Amino acid sequence: MKVLKFGGTSVGSVESILNLKKIVEGQQEPVVVVVSALGGITDKLINTSKLAVAGDATYLTSYEEMVERHHQMIDAIITDTKKKNTLLATVDDLLGQLKSIYQGVFLIGDLSEKTSNVIVSYGERISSNIVAALIEGAKWYNSLEFIKTKHKQGRNLFSNSVSNPLILDVFKSFKNGTADHKVCVAGGFISTDSVTGEVTNLGRGGSDYTAAILAAALDTKVLEIWTDVSGFMTADPRVINTAYPIERLSYVEATELCNFGAKVVYPPTIYPVCIKNIPILVKNTFRPEDKGTIITNVVEEDEGRAIKGISSINNTSLITVSGLSMVGVIGVNRRIFTTLAENGISVFMVSQASSENSTSIGVTDDDADRACEVLNKEFAKEIEMGAMYKMKLERDLATVAIVGENMKHTPGIAGKLFGTLGRNGISVIACAQGASETNISFVVERKSLRKSLNVIHDSFFLSEYQVLNVFLCGVGTVGGSLLEQIAGQRQKLMKERNLQINVVGIASGHNAMFDRNGIDLEAPLLSPQGEKTPCGEFSIQRLREMLKQAPASNMERLKEEVIGMNIFNSVFVDCTASADVAGLYEAFLSNNISVVAANKVAASSDYDNYARLKATARKRGVKYLFETNVGAGLPIINTINDLINSGDKILKLEAVLSGTLNFIFNTISADVPFSETVRRAKEEGYAEPDPRIDLSGKDVIRKLVILSREAGYKMNQEDVEKHLFIPQSFFEGSLEDFWKNLPSLDAQFEKERQEVEAAHQHWRFVAKLENGKGSVALERVGERHPFYDLEGSNNIILITTERYNQYPMLIQGYGAGASVTAAGVFADIMSIANI
Ligand code: ADP
Ligand code: ASP
Ligand code: MG
C-alpha cells in the first residue's frame, strides 16, 4: 500500500489533474490519495473572508470566481453526465454552505479563528470530492472524521493518540484487503478538534502532514509527495535557476532543509514517517518520468559533495542580549529561552560567542518586537543596574542554511563558505553550527540574500556550471568585437567548461540596459512599429540599436545600477577610453566587482591611484586586470607578473609598443613621404583620431609606465624621458594647423630616411626601462637587431631578467586591432572565472 499526496499545483489545472488521474490509475497496488485545495484556492478563501469582514461587498464577486473555477474544472474533466450531476450536487452544497458563512461574516463584521478555520477547510473538502469522482473506482474519505487535533498553548496540534485508532478503524477493510475499492481519496490539511469537534487544520502547507500521518498509521511502503518540481532541489529554484534535484536525502537533511524554508515539504511531515522508517519520494506530477528525490534514513555520498542543499528564510530579525554580567553567570540562557517559550515565540537560530557576553537569537520579523519587549522585561533589573544592555534588535535580515550530513567528515566547509561570502563582499552578521555538523546557518542583510544563495550555490555545486556576470561599458570596435566573441563562445563554454557567461549590463556613453538574468544577445529587435525584425544570431548593429532605445545613462547611474544589482561573481569590463569610466573602478572593486580594462587611463594615471586600485582589489579578493593596455592581446603583463611571482626580477625592458608609429616607419619610402604615412595610418584605423597622441609618444609613455609598474618600479608619466622626433611646436596649435604644417617635415625626414636606408637600418620608436629609468626615443636599428624585422603594426618586447639574462625573453605579434584586443579582454574575463 502507498500514500500519494498531490499538492495545489497538481490539482490546479485541467492538465495537472488529468496527469494525477493517469498516475493514480497506473498504480499496481492499493493507494490512499491525499489532495490539497485547487492551487491558489486557500489564499483566495482567506482573502475573500478579509473582504467580507471589512464590509466590502466585492467579497461576493470573489466568491463567485471560486464557484466558477470549480465548475469549469468539473466541466472539463468529468464527461459522464450522471457522475457529473452527482458531483455537482455535492460540490454546490459545499459552496452553498460557504456562501452562507461569508454572508454571516459580512453582516456581523466579525471573523473569529473558528470561522476562519471552517472557511479554509472548504478548499480541500471540495477538491477531494472532485478527485474521488474523477478516479475510476475511488472512494471518498472524510478527513474531518479521523484527523484530530488538540488545543495547546493557543495552537491546534495534531493528536496522534486520538487519530491513530480512528484511522485504523476507518481504513480497516482497506488495509486488510477486503474493501471493494483500490483507491481512497481524502482531503489534506483539514482536521477537527478532538474534544469539541470544531473544524481545525494542520497549518499552511499541511496536506503533506496529513499524508505522512496516514502513511505512518497504515504502515505503508512509501509516502509519495507529488508536486510541481522534480524533487528536493539543491536550492530554491525560484531564486537559483541553476538549482537541480537531489537524488537522495536523509531524513535529517530533509528536515534541516525544510525547517529553513525549502517549502517543497511541510516540515512536520518528516517525523511520523521517519520513526516508522517509511521512505518519502518527492515526484513531479508534470514529469512523472523524472526520478525525483528519495528520502530515507541512509546518508549517501552524493558524488563526493559535502553539502546537499541550501535553504533560506528571508524574514529574519536578530536580537542580541548582551552585557558584562552575563560572563560566567549561569542561567541567563535559561531565562532567555524560558521567557521566549512562555510567550510562544519560536527561536530558529542561536549564536553565542565563547566569551559569553552576548547571545544572538534569530526570530521571525513578526515575533521580533514582542520578543524584545518580553526580554527587556525579564532582564529589567539587570538593565537598570547597568549590568546588561537593552536588547538590540536588527531587522531586514535573512538566514541561510547549508545542509549535509557528510559535512562532519569534510574539513574546511565553513572556511570555504565564509571565504566565498567574503570574496563577494557579503558580511555575515551571525552564524551557528550545531555540534551535529549537519547544518551551518548564518544571518546576512536581506538585500544580500539572493547574492549569498547564488555564490554559495555556485561554489558548492560547481559540477553543474559556474556563472560569471559581465557588465560591459563601451560598444565601439573592441566592445562590439568582445560581445561577438562572447555570443559565439557561450554555448561551447557552457558545454565544455561548465561556465555560463551572462552579460547582465551593457552601457554606451549615453544609454544603459541591465538584466540580472542575462541580456539576450540574440534578442529580436522591435522596430518602432512594434514588429520584430528577423534575427537569430548576434549582430552588433542590432545590439547598438537596442542600446539606443534603452534608458539614458550617465556615470552616476551606471555606478548605482552596477553596485545596486549586488550580483555575485561579477566583472565590470571597460572597453572605452574614458577617464570618467576609469574613475568608477575604485567603487566597483570596493564592492567586490572585478574590473577588466582595455582602457589605459587608470593603470597609467597617478601612481598612488594605480596602487590604490591594486590594493583594493587585493583586499577585496577580486581582480583588476588590464592585459590589453599594452600590446593588445599579447601576453605581456601576465608574463611579467608570472616572472615576478616566481621570484625573478625584471632588469630591463625594451619594446616597440606603438602599432601606429611602427606602421608609419614601415611605410615611409621614397614614394610615400612622412606626412602621407601619418594620413594613411589614420585612414586605416591605426592611429587615434588625433594622431598627435601617437606622434608625441604619449601613448607609448603610458604603456611603458604600466609595464614598469607591473615590473615593480614606481613610475609616473612625467618621469619618462622623451625624445621627440617632431618639433614641440607641432603639438601646440590646432589639429587643422597640424595637418597643414605636417608636409613641411617631409624633406628633412626624406634626407634622414636615405641615411637610414644606406646604413641598412630601420627606424623604430623604442620604449625602454633600464636601471629603473624610463625613456622613449626614435632609434635606428641594424639588420641583426631583433626589432629590425617588425612588420606592419606589430609590437615586440624584450624582457631581460635575472633568469633571462644573456638571452632576453621575446614576445612579438599583433599589437593592435579590435579583434585581438577583444580576445585579450576575453582572456582576462576567463581568468576571473578561474576555470
Ligand atoms: P505543493 O502545492 O505541491 O504542495 P509547494 O508550492 O508547497 O507545492 O512546494 C513546491 C515549491 O517549493 C516548488 O514549486 C518550489 O518553488 C519551492 N521550493 C522552495 N525550495 C525548494 C527546494 N529546495 N527544492 C524544491 N522546491 C523548492
Ligand atoms: N491548501 C493548504 C495550503 O495552501 C494546504 C496545502 O496545500 O498543503 O496551505
Ligand atoms: Mg506544499
List keywords for this structure.
single chain; 835 residues; alpha/beta; eight-stranded mixed sheet; six-stranded antiparallel sheet; 30 strands; 41% helix; elongated; binds adenosine-5'-diphosphate; binds aspartic acid; binds magnesium ion
In short, what is this structure?
By secondary structure, the protein is α/β, with parallel strands linked by helices. It contains 30 helices and 30 strands. It starts with a strand and ends with a helix.
Q: How far is the first residue's CA from the last residue's CA?
A: 49 Å
Helical coverage, percent range: 40-55%
Secondary structure: number of strands: 30
Strand content: 15-25%
Hetero groups: adenosine-5'-diphosphate, aspartic acid, magnesium ion
Describe the strand arrangement of the main beta sheet, using strand numbers. Answer: 3-6-2-1-9-11-12-10
Give structural notes.
- The chain is an alpha/beta fold.
- The strands form 5 sheets. The protein has an 8-stranded mixed sheet with strand order 3-6-2-1-9-11-12-10, sandwiched between helices.
- The chain is elongated, with a radius of gyration of 36 Å.
- The protein binds adenosine-5'-diphosphate, aspartic acid and magnesium ion.
- Magnesium ion binds near residues 7, 205, 208 and 266.
- Aspartic acid (ASP) binds near residues 36, 188, 205, 207 and 208.
Layout of SSEs?
Blueprint: E1 2-6, H1 14-25, E2 31-35, H2 41-53, H3 59-77, H4 81-108, H5 113-134, E3 138-141, H6 143-146, E4 148-152, E5 155-158, H7 160-170, H8 172-175, E6 183-187, E7 190-193, E8 199-201, H9 207-218, E9 222-227, E10 248-250, H10 251-259, H11 270-275, E11 280-284, E12 293-296, E13 309-322, H12 332-342, E14 349-352, E15 358-364, H13 365-378, H14 380-385, E16 392-403, H15 413-423, E17 430-433, E18 439-445, H16 449-460, E19 466-473, H17 477-497, E20 499-507, E21 512-514, H18 540-549, H19 555-564, E22 570-574, H20 579-582, H21 585-590, E23 594-597, H22 607-620, E24 624-625, H23 636-645, E25 650-656, H24 659-667, H25 674-683, H26 692-695, H27 698-710, E26 721-722, H28 735-741, H29 746-758, E27 761-770, E28 773-782, E29 795-801, E30 809-813, H30 818-833
Parallel strand pairs: 1-2, 1-9, 2-6, 3-6, 4-7, 9-11, 10-12, 19-20, 19-22, 22-23, 23-24, 26-28
Antiparallel strand pairs: 4-5, 7-8, 11-12, 13-15, 13-16, 14-15, 16-18, 17-18, 20-21, 25-27, 25-29, 27-28, 29-30
Helix pairs in contact: 2-3, 2-4, 2-5, 3-4, 4-5, 7-9, 12-13, 15-16, 17-30, 24-25
The structure holds adenosine-5'-diphosphate (ADP), aspartic acid (ASP) and magnesium ion.
Aspartic acid (ASP) binds at residues 7-8, 36-37, 42, 123, 188-189, 204-208.
